[in-house]
Amino acid sequence: MAALFSDVVVAWYRQFGRKDLPWQQNPTAYRVWVSEIMLQQTQVATVIDYYQRFMQVFPDVQKLAGATSDEVLSLWSGLGYYARARNLHKTAQQVVADHGGEFPDNVADLETLPGIGRSTAGAITSFAYKKPAVILDGNVKRVLARVHAIKSWTGETQTLKQLWEIAEEETPQQNIAAYNQAMMDLGAMICTRSRPSCEACPLTNHCQAFKQNLQNDLPLAKPKKTLPEREGRMLVLLQDDTILLHKRPSPGIWGGLWCFPEYDAALLQQFNIAQQQVGEVSSHTFSHYRWHIRPEYIWVKNKLPRLNQDFIWYNPDKPNNIGLAAIVKHWLVAQHEEIK
DNA sequence: TAGACGTGGAG
DNA sequence: TCTCCAAGTCT
User: Of the listed A36, A156, A199, A280, which one is catalytic?
Assistant: First the structure.
């Protein structure tokens, strides 16, 4: 008789799974929550440094709740999907205000908090509270899609529903933290997107894709779409040692982050221009469009106008704790190189 | 409900 | 250089 799926998974975890990730040490709900949000659509290797820095500054939910949004976004700068950071801040404040500083210990209540969906709620419930809960992240989807030889794109509503049902059936009542972590580890280490290591996989006996030699074809790739292209101009206004930055509206791309203002004739009119120069176009690819941005360098004589709160003169030599869009960080680094 | 929402690593 | 997409959620 074949061994129970979850037993095989847990046994594999005991021997080969990851146990040294930063958020696995002292896995309180707060620490697990922060890691799960950072890990959404983001790889472990990228997250580790951000996580360490974040925990250094915000060791508990009260500290985070009491921070300014600039402080939070500055620690998120470069990680992307900034709505995660804005929601993180909101949720911290809600947890302190409405839950006495303690995160709920069940999926239903966790899901009511901003930025926490079904899978993240399952992760917090299982990893922090050791209570049975189902997760379905990209890793688990890939493993289950192969094990069950699911021949439709995992993003389809119907397929997603099916995957949740399968995940619920397979998830055990015991050893929940080990099982859930194991499924993610299998997806990340063995059952990888390309060239899965089936020779090292404990699940080949259970795997329909392996039996049908479909492991390289499943899960099915997302249907292709051509990315829309957009063009734009940004103003790099320089005055003495400072650069004019604009706080971008949220929601929206780079919402809440400080960035060069997009071209604005009315804004320009307020300045006494000493010199200007058109720069080279740089292209930025997002998940839903490609943006070709041409910078216009403008040296101005006056600092004046009545700039509202959404504008600041930023001095790169005196870094402030504000969230900079990656494009600004990169530009500052490039400038620094040039000066040297 | 499909589109919005970032960035960087892998192949 | 280019394409794909990773520990998803929100609207």
Answer: A36
pTM: 0.96
pLDDT in tens, A137-180: 999 999 999 999 999 999 999 999 999 999 999 999 999 999 99
Long-range contacts at A241-244 (CB < 8 A, ≥ 24 apart): A241/A315, A241/A316, A241/A317, A242/A303, A242/A313, A242/A314, A242/A315, A243/A313, A243/A314, A243/A316, A244/A307, A244/A311, A244/A312, A244/A313, A244/A314
Distance (Å) from CA A194 to C1' B11? 9
Minimum-distance residue to B4 (CA–C1'): A288
Nucleotide nearest to A138 in CA–C1' terms: C7
Alpha helices per DSSP H over chain A: 5-16, 29-39, 44-57, 61-65, 69-76, 83-98, 107-110, 118-127, 138-147, 157-170, 176-185, 208-211, 265-269, 326-339
Indicate the length of chain A as a whole number: 340
Tell me the pLDDT tens digit for each residue of A221-271. Answer: 999 888 999 999 999 999 998 999 999 999 999 999 999 999 999 999 999
**Is residue A199 among the annotated active site residues?**
no
**Nearest nucleotide, C1' to the C-alpha of A256?**
B5
Nearest nt (C1') from A248 Cα: B5
Cβ atoms of A280 and A296 within 8 Å: the answer is no
Residue with minimal CA–C1' distance to B5 is A81
